[in-house]
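sry for the spam today, last one i promise. struct tokens for design, 88 residues
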């Protein structure tokens, strides 16, 4: 009997899709309110997962989904960085 490796699943805060963790990007916010894009998935602080698609990122910016989830104001630079990553 082979052991089946469980694939960690996470929910996108905008599209509410449950996807493998690798298909999403984590945005982390520390208690001090420092927001960063956590590509490794190990940064300390509250985290929120976003699907890496232009539409989802722009919608997150428009409806402030990350601001609510992380309980901080997410700077525009974070969204710009996310769009750059999504276009790669």
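last one done:
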């Amino acid at each position: 009997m082979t052991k089946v490796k469980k694939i960690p699943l996470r929910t996108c805060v905008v599209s509410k899709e449950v996807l493998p963790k690798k298909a999403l990007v984590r945005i982390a916010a520390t208690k001090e309110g420092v927001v960063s894009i956590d590509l490794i998935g190990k940064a300390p602080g509250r985290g929120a997962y976003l699907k890496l698609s232009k539409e989802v990122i722009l919608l997150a910016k428009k409806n402030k989904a990350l601001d609510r989830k992380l309980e901080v104001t997410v700077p525009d630079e974070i969204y710009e960085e996310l769009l750059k990553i999504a276009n790669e």
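The chain has one domain: 9-87. ok im logging off now
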